[in-house]
Amino acid sequence: MVTLDVVLAEAQKNRRVCPQPQRWNELYQMLPDTRRKGGGYEPAAPLILAAWWDTPAMLKMLRLREHIEWAERHGALDKVHAFLSEMPESEWLHLGES
Fold first, then answer.
1. What is the pTM of this model?
2. How far is 37 from 1, CA to CA, in rounded Å?
3. Cβ atoms of 17 and 84 closer than 8 Å
4. Least crowded by CB within 10 Å, which of 10, 33, 52, 57?
5. pLDDT value at residue 1
6. Radius of gyration for the chain, computed over Cα atoms and rounded to the nearest angstrom
7. Which of 37, 28, 30 is nearest to 66 (CA)?
8. Dist. CA 52–CA 33, nearest whole Å
9. pLDDT tens digits for range 47-56
């Protein structure tokens, strides 16, 4: 059985920060029950497009964690785990990379 800890470990191994923008958007699109809330979304959208360049690695890591926790609460943890596990290392941003 896939647990939150297993998925978080997958997302953090090899000094990973988050998926590259296109892949992170794909992950976000698979999250169930996302919705507009005020001027934004719930959960908050991935830090891509202009936000990609202006956001430090730690905040990207925290946002990805929010998405994984959302997946757990909404019954999509297995799907998200499979997606992240199948991504090649080249499709991840790593600590120390731009």
1. 0.95
2. 32
3. no
4. 33
5. 82
6. 13
7. 28
8. 24
9. 999 999 999 9
Residue 63: closest CA among 5, 8, 18, 2: 18
Q: Where does the chain have alpha helices with state H?
A: 4-12, 21-30, 50-54, 57-73, 77-86
- The residues, ordered by sequence, that sit 6+ positions from 19 with a Cβ below 8 Å of its Cβ are 26, 27, 64, 84, 87, 91, 92, 93
The structure tokens 């757990």 sit at 72
Residue 70 confidence (pLDDT) above 90: yes
Residues 6+ apart with CB under 8 A from 18: 11, 24, 46, 47, 60, 61, 63, 64, 92, 93
The closest alpha carbon to 31, from 85, 78, 67, belongs to 67
